[in-house]
Amino acid sequence: MNRDHTTLLRLRKARRYILLYVLLIAIAIAIILPISWIVASSFTTRETVWKNVLPFSWRAFFPADFTLDGYHAIFEKDFGRALLNTFFLGAVTVVFGIAVGAMSGFAFARLQFRAKNFLFALVIFSFMIPGDLTIIPSFVLVRDLGWLGTWQGLIVPGLANGIIIFLFRQFFAEIPQDLIDAPRVDGATWLQVFMRIILPVSKPALISAGVILFLGQWNNFFWPLLVAPDPELRVVQVAVSIIGVEQQVSLWEQMFASSTLAMLVPVLLILPFQRYYVGGILGSGLKG
Amino acid sequence: MLNKLRLERWTPAFFLAPAIILLIVFRYIPIVLGFEEALYTNSLSLAGARKFVGLNNFIAVFEDPVVWGSFKTTMVFSLVVNPLQVGLALLLAELINQRVPGIAVFRAIYLVPVAISMNVTAIAWGLALDPNYGLINGIIRTLGLPRQPFLQHPSQALWSIIGIISWIGVPYWSLFFLAGLQGISSDVLESARVDGAGSLRTFISIKLPLLRRIIAFVLVSDTVVNFTLFAPIYLITRGGPQLSTHLVMYEAYRRGLVYGDIGIASAIISVLLIVVVAFVAVEFIVLRPRH
User: What is the CATH number of the domain that holds B47?
Assistant: First the structure.
């Protein structure tokens, strides 16, 4: 009787496991297959790109006849320039975005000043309203500043990021008071405390902020499309969209090649930094 | 010493100034500018200069069938996409919260769409859903089913867009729910189990109520973000077929930057902004900590 009961339990558990793994694998396939199809198609020619799709065969997820035609073609169209531009845009945004975010996060976490709650409400409210919502008046503002087609037009409006400020504030608020009190008693200024004590112990927050800011710029499309669509400042997402839709003929292999490169970088970045990325975006939702 | 004290008085301002100035100039001034621009016409196609037109642009928002239609389409779209994404994200979070071997690998795979831009997702799924040679129709036909028009038919286009953006949206929002589920104390779940509650019962009666705040946060954030959906419409459907995917952000872009009528584009955005602020205000009230 007792043994029957354990067998039943074990059977139930096994059934549960099988069901779980079927679901997990099915969802993983729904994510991986479209990606492997894009990557596989990026190594085909325009003539063979649909060969294994209609009629459909599993070979659609592997390159039909390996060529680099698509990649050659997009690099001849300055896709390399777009990649470099985006790396530069991302790097500058990471450096200055972290400086701006960490400094104000520090003030909110550790300093006393008037109108603190009001100013912090400004920060919170700014990330509840997506930047894309006010993109047209922002465009008008940047146009009136004479910043259309400039690096500052691309970079400066995105430097102060409410989520990043919030992330730093949360992290700095947890730093033990003793760490700060000792140098303060010894006469260190707040700037010295910030540079020598706070920042060195805040590597997780700095990595989170860096990954979020870089991914944000790498995947940004609407703003650069409006502000800097010209070839000199063109960023990767705009370049992908131009290859993708603004052509008379459909350049299939080039669409797949440019899409492959555009997604490769953020995927390679997010996987090793999963914990930091997820931790960073969660802070904005859960503790607020 | 006095000098130092005077310096210290300015310390908060020094640390705050860059962020606050940038936020005010690039996030808050555009909001005000949007309301102001909405009172003028400066259509580039007209010879006349910028002219004050009062509330005409706002009246046009409600009277122009295409503009008002884009608001209606956006409402229908919102009412479907947001509950759908929140529901699926909750289920996905519950799935990846199971402690089974290899779960870390699945979590990593499910994070991949989160890293990919809406732009690339739209282009790739636009190709995959192509009625003539798309991957999905290839699979459908191999299964012996009839070819589907997807993005090229008014009855399916908006649904296809919802599917495409959920490929990113569901895994993204599930991260928030997963964190919420992991925050539920094991004592609570253990006592439910001892009382004989099954997985489904525990999920509905214990976990969902405890996730109330996160669900509210995600529902509002998702709604607000989806109000600004632009890339897939711009890249794949251009609002069509027959305006079936003509969402409000695309209409604002078309009016403001294709036709050069910043006035009506600003009026569209201002109306949308009022709706968004109302949503966010409700969220703040719901999420206010209770003592």
Answer: 1.10.3720.10
